[in-house]
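Researcher: Next sequence.
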Amino acid sequence: MRAIILAAGFGTRLYPLTKDRPKALLPIGNKTLLDYLIQPLEKLPMVKEITLVTNARFYLDFYKWRKNSGYAKPIYIEDNHVSMPEKRCGAILDLKLAIESRQKDDEDFLILCSDNYFDFPLSHFLLPILSHPHCAFVGLYDVQNKADASKYGVVQVDHEHRIIDFEEKPANPKSTKISVGAYYLPGKLKHRLNEYLDAGYSADKIGDFIGFLSRNENLFAVDFEGAWFDIGSIQSYVEARKHLNAATV
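Model: Next structure:
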């Protein structure tokens, strides 16, 4: 299995904090947001290497971070060659770049969005995959109210935890469970990326691709418990820092 971390955003909603620094390298507690993703990956024996996709503006920042990080697993940094937010590729094209950069016939993918913090163990997320290795999985979090859910990709599941509906930022959510930016994509389904793009769908949000996948494949959900923060605004960043600072006291 290869882990892919999508970190090519420009974090414009967090300006001025991210004007000259990528969102994934913002400090939270005594580490960066990215370290909270990498450290659990280090403990997963099935993850053999990590690919991080970034943009041209922040490529050197991640290069310096990797040089000083001391992680044991290989971390490959891919530059999508975009230097301005208005010319961004979109998460789907970034994911395609990551998969094709070191493509192998026999690998599966654990995909993580770099602007999320969660303390749910990734090993627990991967556990159900052992019995359904050829199906895709999505991590879910219950935000408890539909007003908050409408800001994210909203998911409905059946009694077997199979995803039966996925809507990106719906005005009237059918559930309070949302995607947390953690996905498992078996290698046999990577061709669906090309099908999605060839059909003319937007390359911007990975949630739109997950919705497409749910209509064409068996897609299952794993409920995340504990703390979760979407670091999409200064307010959410402050809340995440308060949580981590309180946890380390």
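Model: The CA atoms of residues 22 and 58 lie 6 Å apart. Residues 2-140+179-248 form a domain with the Spore Coat Polysaccharide Biosynthesis Protein SpsA; Chain A fold (CATH 3.90.550.10).
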